[in-house]
Design goal:
Distance between the termini: 37 Å
CATH class: Alpha Beta
CATH superfamily: Pseudouridine synthase
CATH architecture: 2-Layer Sandwich
Number of strands: 13
Structural class: alpha+beta
Helix content: 10-25%
Strand content: 25-35%
Radius of gyration: 19 Å
Order of helices and strands: EEHEEHEEEEEEHEEHE
CATH topology: Pseudouridine synthase
Largest sheet: 11 strands, mixed
Oligomer: single chain
Length: 250
């Protein structure tokens, strides 16, 4: 894994922070190794006590919110509990759906055989809904815009994999360990004596946008996070060698 990119502040307010979290950095302290670098501790060093309002998987990049006061934490927390916060992700998957948009309604529960991972569990799982729309069809890959309507662990990853469309990079749920140019560039030739480096080797999932009501003013707020360089490079190469992107027909 490449060195973790530096995190940056997308918006700073008296009651809350919107941070652009890089892939590879934990949102909050690890349960088993408190010394692992994590965004919560880094923010605490700069701002004092902060409250994680929600989380992103370690290998997911993008916008994440932290509250700076107990009042803001409660206000934002109520919005997440009521599912009124609108979160939008970009997901690059393997495979192509037969339609251009839809909604997945499949309850999720922890996978007993693989602790820490989730699976669709129709009998005992918690309700989980995900809305999706195709942005680009790129040969063997698809770029989606995805909105989780509930907030279950690994929800987007499991739901897309359940459609037969795992993230392009996601070894836990049917994707690969990396995305390589040799997978789709015609006539690709590896340099003599060297291994091929992946274009991207973390989850091909990015938290691109979040919309909510500001704690101080109750005004609608939208914060966006730019696409990281590794994700941009992967998309650029796919578009170049697979052909012109075909937009959604919806």
């Amino acid at each position: 894994m490449a060195p973790i990119a530096r995190w940056s502040i997308l918006r700073e307010e008296p009651g809350w922070l919107a941070i652009d979290k890089p892939a590879g950095l934990l949102s909050t302290p690890d349960r088993f190794d408190r010394d692992k670098p994590n965004l919560h501790d880094l923010l605490t060093e700069r701002y004092g006590k902060v409250h994680p309002v929600h989380r992103l998987d370690r290998e997911t990049s993008g916008v994440i919110l932290f509250a700076r006061t107990a009042e803001a934490n409660r206000y934002l927390g109520r919005q997440f509990e009521a599912h009124t916060v609108e979160k939008t992700y970009l997901a690059l998957t393997r495979g192509m759906p037969t339609t251009s948009a839809g909604e997945i309604d499949a309850p999720l529960g922890e996978w007993a055989r693989r602790p820490g991972l989730m699976r669709v569990d129709l009998r005992h799982g918690q309700p989980a809904r995900t809305r999706w729309q195709v942005l680009e069809r790129l040969g063997p890959f698809t770029l989606f815009e995805v909105q989780p309507l509930t907030g279950r662990q690994h929800q987007i990853r499991v739901h897309l994999a359940g459609m037969g469309l795992p993230l392009a990079v996601d070894p836990d749920y049917g994707g690969h360990t990396g995305l390589f140019l040799s997978e789709f560039k015609p006539g690709y030739k590896r340099a003599s004596g060297s291994g091929e480096r992946p274009l991207i080797e973390r989850l091909t999932l990015h938290a691109a946008r979040i919309r909510f009501l500001a704690p101080e003013t109750e005004e609608p707020i939208e914060v966006t996070a730019p696409l990281p360089r590794d994700f941009e490079v992967a998309l650029k190469q796919i578009r170049r060698w697979v052909g012109s992107p075909v937009p959604s027909d919806g």
